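Take a sample.
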Amino acid sequence: MTLARPALIRPVIVFVTLALGVGFAMSFLFPVGEWYGELNKPFFNPPNWVFGPVWTVLYIMIGFAGALAWRRNPKSGAVRVWFAQLILNGAWTAVFFGAKQIELALAVIMILLLLILSFTGETRKEVPLASWLFVPYLLWVSFAAMLNAAISSLN
């Protein structure tokens, strides 16, 4: 499956736009703000400017992976999991930055990790590129879960 195929270009545009749209919308609706700046954070907390570029690249990869899974089988479990993880991804931002519920956000991110693992596993054999595109996402969300847990214990 190559990107040059028109049958794949449309889903890529839709899925990447959807992933980026959720990410940008949630960061606009629930900005980091003063509250986050006042929290005690662990030594491994990256500077705030890192998050925007990292998430932008990840959302593009997430969208591309979703398009590949959809192209393979629009009614597959992998596609359902893709949509579920996108919803939870946005929900984490709302819970952490919007509701300021650090412990609840930790629960949300743990479920998100399970969904990311599920998508990666479900696409591993039939759409390996989609699976590989989720590996950086898995690593980053694992890091974010550690960060969330550390912030929870420090505050």
Observations:
- The first helix runs from residue 6 to 29.
- The CA atoms of residues 98 and 116 lie 23 Å apart.
- DSSP finds seven helices and no strands in the chain.
